[in-house]
Specification:
Blueprint (H helix, E strand, L loop, with lengths): L1 H21 L5 H21 L4 E6 L4 E5 L6 H17 L3 E3 L4 E6 L3 E7 L4 H21 L12 H9 L2 H16 L3 E6 L6 E6 L11 E2 L4 H7 L4 E3 L2 H5 L13 E8 L2 E9 L7 H29 L12 H9 L6 E8 L2 H8 L1 H17 L6 E4 L4 E7 L3 H17 L2 E3 L2 E3 L3 E8 L9 H15 L3 E3 L8
Parallel strand pairs: 17-18
Antiparallel strand pairs: 1-2, 1-5, 3-4, 4-5, 6-7, 6-11, 7-8, 9-10, 10-11, 12-14, 12-17, 13-14, 15-16
Helix pairs in contact: 1-2, 1-4, 2-4, 4-6, 6-9, 11-12
């Protein structure tokens, strides 16, 4: 019975039933019908496993419940909803046996739970599988908005969709894991730079793999650009790098291309012994990849269009607006802001022309980027001024970066049409929480330090040393 229910849920959600739930913005009656359809699916899970209550929640606070008759007490309902929310935040399965048994599953945007007075271990596992299939199907069909949020405005849906690439990748990884019972990884590539990296992993995969870049000549790298699955029998073959050499067994797997028409957007990687992945499993995974590729591509396109508003067109760096949003997204933690001014840019433009000035800017940008960690961010905040945002970097770290870029710029010749010219930088630094208490005050403080540095030229000044009283 449990397997039948799981397959039925996959068929209902994956076969277009969830398209009615999540894929259309119709009339008020149609939205009500969508919510009712989700409730019916929850009730199917509830009844299949003999539970008194089933619920689905989203990160915006929406919820849908399906209960037995007579209904559980408000206290029980509140407790089960809380369990679903907790699993949603933790992105994991939880089981509670405090008062009866509650099983909950979550993926960061959706959470689901069922509760019963008595559930054995086998029923717990079967119920968890059905809840996971339900969430995965809903996310794959419409990652831009959970089922309960169908009444949200178009702008709200678009914002959610723009940030859903990772969420969709997680749902795709879990759907693949459900199909083949193996750990999976989703890799997405940047269409312009061709750089590919891991954006999501399923349960059973070390989350430290997220963010790891994949080499283009590896099996996964080739799958990102190809049209057929590519096998890798070692970690080096699969991803292009050795990774953690302490593992007892080398990693192997098959990379299934994620494509949007003729364009490769990434790869769905199934880990484990290649010889045990039979033809039927491969066929199912290829179909899943064919469905997931266009959805991830669409999410990436919308995100890209939104990001362009915050990107400097000449350098590709964040502009002042985006940098401010990045800085505002963290608390008053340890961090540093470095403001950089090209000393001679106006003279370069007057002497050699506007194109030369733009070339000088790009020359300095390359130096700045080479000095940063992956978690740092560079922005262009003025005609000849740049900002280096260094989260989790104390003042000493900011000074090190500042001196590095100043010396590199001074000692790296810049060539314009066969003529070498020397460029130098003036740099100002401010750090939080010492001496600047709030991140919101960092820019003003660093700008004060930069003003002192510009008067001297080709130097680094630190806010709080001598500039805070000036």
């Amino acid at each position: 019975m449990y397997q039948t229910v799981a397959l039925l849920l996959i068929g209902l959600v994956g076969g277009g039933f969830a398209g009615l739930l999540l894929g259309r913005r119709g009339s008020r009656g149609r939205r009500s019908s969508s919510a009712e359809s989700v409730r019916q699916m929850l009730d199917l899970v509830r009844r299949a496993h003999g539970c008194e209550l089933a619920c689905l929640v989203d990160r915006r606070g929406g919820s849908i419940t399906a209960a037995s008759d007579p209904s559980p007490s408000p206290e029980v309902v509140e407790s089960v909803l809380a369990a679903a929310k907790q699993s949603m935040v933790e992105r994991r399965m939880n089981t509670s046996r405090d008062a009866g048994t509650t099983v909950s599953i979550g993926d960061g945007s959706l959470g689901a739970a069922v509760s019963s007075s008595d559930m054995g271990d086998a029923v717990v596992e079967a119920a968890a599988t059905d809840l996971r299939n339900l969430i995965t199907g809903l996310r794959l069909q419409r990652p831009s908005a959970p089922a309960m949020a169908v009444q949200a405005s178009i702008s709200t849906e678009r914002q959610a969709f723009a940030g859903s690439v990772e969420g969709m990748a997680v749902a795709l990884a879990e759907a693949a894991r459900g199909l083949c019972k193996r750990p999976t990884v989703v890799v997405v590539r940047d269409v312009r730079s061709k750089a590919a990296k891991v954006v999501a992993v399923s349960q059973g995969v070390d989350r430290r793999l997220v963010g790891v870049h994949v080499l283009t000549d590896s099996a996964v790298g080739r799958a990102c650009f190809g049209a057929t699955p590519v096998e890798g029998r070692t970690r080096v073959e699969l991803f292009g790098h050795r990774g953690d050499t302490r593992r007892r067994h080398d990693l192997q797997g098959v990379a299934f291309p994620l494509r949007d028409g003729q364009i490769g957007v990434g790869a769905l990687v199934v880990l484990g012994p290649i010889k045990h992945l039979n033809a039927s499993a491969r066929h199912n995974l290829e179909e899943l990849a064919a469905e997931g590729g266009p959805k991830i591509s669409s999410a990436m396109a919308i995100r890209s269009s939104d990001l362009r508003v915050g990107i400097d067109q000449l350098t590709g760096l964040a502009n002042r607006r985006m940098l401010g949003e990045l800085m505002g997204s963290v608390g008053n933690t340890t961090c540093s802001l470095v403001l950089v001014q090209i000393d001679q840019l106006e003279k370069v433009s007057q002497t050699y022309g506007r194109k030369a000035g733009e070339a000088a800017i790009k020359h300095v940008v390359r130096i700045l980027l080479n000095a940063l960690r992956d978690e740092d961010e560079a922005g262009r905040v003025g005609e000849s001024q740049f900002a280096l945002w260094l989260p989790d970097a104390p003042g000493d770290g900011g000074i090190t970066v500042a001196e590095r870029v100043r010396i590199a710029t001074e000692t790296t010749p810049w060539d314009w049409v066969g003529t070498e010219a020397k460029l130098t930088l003036s740099v100002g630094i401010a750090s939080c929480p010492d001496p600047v208490e709030k991140v919101s005050q960092l820019y003003e403080a660093a700008d004060g330090a930069l003003s002192v540095a510009k008067e001297k030229g080709n130097t680094v000044e630190v806010y709080g040393a001598e500039v805070d009283q000036e």
